[in-house]
Amino acid sequence: MIFMRTGASGWPPADFLRKVWETDMKTGKNARVMLLSQKLMLGSVILVFLTIGFTIVMVLRLNLKLQSHRIETTLHDLGEMVAANPLVIQAFKEDQSSEELILYLDNLIRGLRDVDVITLADMRLRRLYHVNRSRIGENFVGGDEERVLRGERYFSRAVGSLGDQKRYFVPVLDAETRKELGFIVVASLMTNIASQRWEIYEAHFSTFLLILAIGLPAAWLTARGIKKSLLGYEPEQLSKFFLERDEVLNSLEEGIVAVDAAGYITLVNKAAGTMLHIVPEDLRVRLLDDIYPQIRIGETLASGEPLYNNGIILGDVNILCNRIPIRENGTLLGAVAILRNRTELTRMAEELTGVNHMIDALRSNSHEFMNKMQVILGLLRIGEPEEAERYITGIAREQSDVIAAVLQKIRNKNLGALLLGKMSHCRELDIEFNLVGSSSVPAVSQFLSGDAFVTLVGNLVENAIEAVNSKAKGEGDREVSLLIHEDERSLMVTVDDTGEGMTPEEIEHVRQGGYSSKGRHRGTGMRLIRSVLESNGGEMQIDSEKGAGTSITVCFTREGKL
Fold first, then answer.
1. From edge to edge, which strands make up the β-sheet containing 3-4?
2. Which residues constitute the domain of residue 520?
3. How far apart are CA 36 and CA 229, in angstroms?
4. Residues 329, 412: one domain?
5. Distance between CA atoms of 368 and 365, rounded to whole angstroms?
6. In-domain check, residue 364
7. Separation between Cα atoms, residue 137 and residue 143, nearest integer Å
8. Residue 215 belongs to domain with CATH number
9. What is the pTM of this model?
């Protein structure tokens, strides 16, 4: 994580950032990047479209629903009113409409926009009135009149003599006998309804365009003001620079600490924060020399001269420190301390060369030798020289047989010494180590260098030993088997163990390298194995079953050799 303290003397300098951005813009690298003003314009357009569009759709649906309800209400009320009119009842009784009734109904139609048709028809479906007088006396058409003849009131849609209509049927009853005399149809043409709907659409669309015309210039003015406040730079340029710098700094193994001209901490990368245990609170008003005077960053600020590969001790960590002043146009802006963990460098060098495996082998042999010497000393002290002699003879014979068997099969001396040490280590852990009888390695391998051979076999065997040793004693066999065979065509190394085994997901992580079930900062062995394979064109096959064990085979062939 990157911690920064901002200010006039912050790091990096604003002029430096400006130069970087100017260069990017000159080279055209950001030519295809959408500018802030364009983003705000696009965002405003989208916002306006979504907001106003949603609002208009909801209001439009409501207005259309209100229009439909208004038309139905008008048709219903007018139909009921006309059905109760005495002139209408009289017309049905007399089987014809009076001129007064015809004029009355004509005026109703002209005065109501939602009503286009009023039809009076008797029980024989003969029209007593129609908006088109020439059709009076003709039969009613539409085919939807059956229900009204049974005395029902209802809405319907059908094609009449004037076209597609929305209709309301009302039966006309004799006030005295309550006998149905005929019926009335009040209708609105669908073309009239569609015309009214288009008027609603046009009104809402005009409102949408008006709001859009106001919103877009407002967004443009807002974008212009924000860009002016950023001195003409785009936010993407700022964020890209700092994100790239953070990623680069945090990916470094070296720790980097930057201070300003007064010695206050302005930047700490992840490695330095871990190495120095610096917390965010230390970045506010703390001098680096107050926290770690061993770094002596103040001397670099005072002299303005760099210092390289200065060894210092911070806690229990041995560190190599480079102190470099930062200048701009001859002015000292601050300094950077670059810290490298010498202990970690040494450990990695030992891993890469296989020295640690040779040391482990020597340590195991030494430990086993001391245990046996103590047994001999104990036998001599209790007065059993003959038993001590037999013990020594047995050990010598056993060691001679083991060493002879190993060296007969493994003629590479470094690899043979490594395996003898691993055998001793297994005996200490009560693990049975088997070198398969068909193993055979020449003094000089045609496929791997001596260091690479030791690194590969040492890490494979060590991983197998740790896998077996993780099981409690008595839970099953504790065995590690090793087969190494090299001929003119290929080199094959197979290591089998009876450890806990792995799941398919864990196997995939192992194939990718760097996986370890032993916790943080582990898994280096698998990375080194992967490195040897990639550098020498080898392949790795892993077979494992959870609870049963693991078998790993690596193979190098002349065809696959890089």
1. 3-4, 265-268, 255-260, 331-341, 317-328, 307-314
2. 396-557
3. 12
4. no
5. 5
6. no
7. 17
8. 3.30.450.20
9. 0.38
